[in-house]
Predict the structure.
Amino acid sequence: VINVQNQGLLLATGGTFTLDGAWQNAGTFALTNSTFNVNGNYTLANFGTINSSNTMVYLNGTLDNRNSILTLDESKVGWQLNTVTILGGTIQGVNGVPLTVAFYGTPTLDGVVLNADLVLNDSADPRVVNGLTFNGTCTLYGGINTTSLNFDGTQTLAGQCQINLAGPYDPVVRPVNGTLTIGPKVTIVGGYGIVGRPDLPLINQGTIRAENSSRAVQIVGSSVINSGTIVAVSGPIAADNLQNKGGVSIAPGGTLSLTGAWTNPGTISVTNGTLNVGGTYLKADFTAIQRHGGTINFNSVLDNRNDILFLDNNSDNWSLVDGTILGGTVNTATGVHLSLPDSARGKLDGVIYNGDIVLTMVSKLTITNGLTLNGQVTLAFYSAAIYLDGTQTLSGAGKFVFEGGVDPFRPRSIVPISGTVTIGASFTIEGGTGTLGNPGLPLVNLGTISVDGAGSTITIQGNPFINTGTTLELNGGKVVIVP
C-alpha cells in the first residue's frame, strides 16, 4: 500500500502487508498471522492503532523516534530491522521481546536508547551513530559471512548490557570511524570474535571476557586503552597495542597473547594460565606482571641490556618460543630452567646466562655476540640444534650436552653459521651423540669435548678445527674429527 491515508480498517490475515511512501494511519490496522513491512519516512504517530496477533514486523525506511518510545509489544512474533534508520528516542522491550537485525540487515541506530535484547543474525551489519545506551543482551551470530556491530564516529557504547560473541565465524564489535569507548557497565563475552579495528583507537572501561577454550577473543586497535577489566577465564585473548591502565587477569586454563606496542602501568595477573609475551615493550612492564603458576612464552625481543632478568619459581614454565633475549644477565631460581618447546626458534644475543636451558624436538637456539654460560644447555630431543652466528666465544663454566639416543637421520647438532667460534677454556661440550662444527667455517677448542658411553659419537668438523683443549673418550664413546 503506497501513500495510504487510512481512516478506516485495513485487515490482513495470513498474508504480507507493506506500507510505503507517505502513509498515515488514523484508523486501525488489524493484522493476524501476517508479515508487516514498514517503509517510507514515519513517526510513531503515523502508526495509529494497530491490533495484531502472531505478526512479524520488518522496519525499513526512516523512523523519527526522537522524544518517543517504541514499545516492542508481545502481540508481535518479532521485530526485525532491515534497512531502517531509527532517529533517537527509546526502544523498550516488554517481557523479553527482542529486537532482531535480519540476515544481511543494515539498519542505523542514531542516538538511541535501547532497553531490549538485540539479536544479530548471520551477516547482519548494523551501524550506530551518536552513541548507544543499551540495557539488555546482544548476541552476534556468525555464519560463513561476518556479523558486525559497527560504531561510526567517536562515541560511547553506554548502559548496562552484555554482548555475546556467539560465532562460529568472526563476529565483530568495532569502530568504523573515530574512537569507540566501551562503557563501564558493558560486558563483552566470547566465544570467538573481534573487538575493535586495527587502524582505529579503542577504549575499554567495561569488561571483556574469554570463556571458550577453543575460541579466541581478539582485542585490536591502533591503541587499546584498558581502564576496565580483561579476563581470560578459560579461553584465549589476543590483545594488540594494549595500554593497560586497569586489570587484566588470566585464570586457570586461560591464555593472554600480547602483541604490538604494549605497556602495563596497571595490573596483569596470571594464575595457572598462559602468557604469550610478544610485540615491543619495556622490561619493567613485563616484570610488573603478577604470576602465580602457569607458563610464560617469550615471542619477541626482550631488551635486557644492562639489566638482570630473574626466572623465578612464581611461574611453572618459562619458554623461549619465537623470541630473543637481548643482552644483560639471566639468573634462574633453583629448579627453574628456560625451555625451547617443540619447533621453537629462540635467540640469545650477548647474554650472561646463569642457569639451565632445555631444547626439545626440532627446536633451534641461535647464539650471537657471545654467550657466558654458567649452567647447562641440553639438546634433549632429536633434531634439536644450537646455531652460532658470528665470530664469538663460548665462555663461562657451562656446558652444552647432547642427551639421549642415536638417530643418524635426526641428529642433535651445534653448528656455526658464520664467523669463527671459540670454545672457551672452562667450557665443556659433552654427550651423547651429536655433531659439532661446520665444514666450511673455523672452530677453535680451548675447552673440553667429552663423549661418554658405548655407541655414542661426537663428530667434529671445521675449516680448520684447531684444538688446544681436551677431547675425552669415556666408556666406549668416540670423538670423530672430520678432516
Observations:
- The two ends are 96 Å apart (CA to CA).
- Helices lie at 44-47, 283-287.
- The first strand starts at residue 5 and ends at 6.
- The first helix runs from residue 44 to 47.
